[in-house]
Amino acid sequence: MDWLEFEKEALAKGYKSVCGVDEAGRGPLAGPVCAAAVILPEGVIIDGVNDSKKLSEKKRESLFDVIREQALSYSIAYATVDEIEEINILNATMLAMCRAINGLEIKADYAMIDGNKIPPIDIDAECIVKGDAKSMSIACASILAKVSRDRLLYKYAEEYPMYGFDKHKGYGTKVHREAILKYGPCPYHRKSFLKKLYK
């Protein structure tokens, strides 16, 4: 497999600054959705990088700084719980991706988006389904987004230890669902995601 196939195709079309974009936290019951955008130097493959879901937390943490050091530019952005509630999770995810792309210090002229929907951005882009397992840039973005969001949930766990955010990162595990029913939601919970729980 060529980790740089999509990057090479974009560069061959004449684009100069190609970014990979991915998100973390679309499905949890709590916390924001996080997106990252990464521009790597041409031809660079970072050893050990893979789809963040296939890596251990320890491995993701060790790669986090390596990616930031090697990237030409990277950006990490969020859409808040309030924004998720107001505009729904899909639109909030697109918003976080836009913020990540717009936050790059080196402006990208082409974006490779993990998934099947392109956010409303002012540069050319393509969707790559399961892109975090096919493109080095997207895989790097998936790691930055996942680690950044996980670190935030550890902070929430200190504030609200009864929910176990440090264990499940806001996802709807049995322990998490039981804690919500016992203690009620906290300000970091996505109320619209809890409707089924209360039924």
TrEMBL record:
<keyword id="KW-0963">Cytoplasm</keyword>
<dbReference type="InterPro" id="IPR001352">
    <property type="entry name" value="RNase_HII/HIII"/>
</dbReference>
<dbReference type="InterPro" id="IPR022898">
    <property type="entry name" value="RNase_HII"/>
</dbReference>
<feature type="binding site">
    <location>
        <position position="23"/>
    </location>
    <ligand>
        <name>a divalent metal cation</name>
    </ligand>
</feature>
<dbReference type="InterPro" id="IPR036397">
    <property type="entry name" value="RNaseH_sf"/>
</dbReference>
<dbReference type="InterPro" id="IPR012337">
    <property type="entry name" value="RNaseH-like_sf"/>
</dbReference>
<feature type="binding site">
    <location>
        <position position="114"/>
    </location>
    <ligand>
        <name>a divalent metal cation</name>
    </ligand>
</feature>
<protein>
    <recommendedName>
        <fullName>Ribonuclease HII</fullName>
        <ecNumber>3.1.26.4</ecNumber>
    </recommendedName>
</protein>
<feature type="domain" description="RNase H type-2">
    <location>
        <begin position="16"/>
        <end position="199"/>
    </location>
</feature>
<dbReference type="Pfam" id="PF01351">
    <property type="entry name" value="RNase_HII"/>
</dbReference>
<keyword id="KW-0540">Nuclease</keyword>
<dbReference type="GO" id="GO:0004523">
    <property type="term" value="F:RNA-DNA hybrid ribonuclease activity"/>
</dbReference>
<keyword id="KW-0255">Endonuclease</keyword>
<comment type="similarity">
    <text>Belongs to the RNase HII family.</text>
</comment>
<feature type="binding site">
    <location>
        <position position="22"/>
    </location>
    <ligand>
        <name>a divalent metal cation</name>
    </ligand>
</feature>
<dbReference type="InterPro" id="IPR024567">
    <property type="entry name" value="RNase_HII/HIII_dom"/>
</dbReference>
<comment type="function">
    <text>Endonuclease that specifically degrades the RNA of RNA-DNA hybrids.</text>
</comment>
<keyword id="KW-0479">Metal-binding</keyword>
<keyword id="KW-0464">Manganese</keyword>
<keyword id="KW-0378">Hydrolase</keyword>
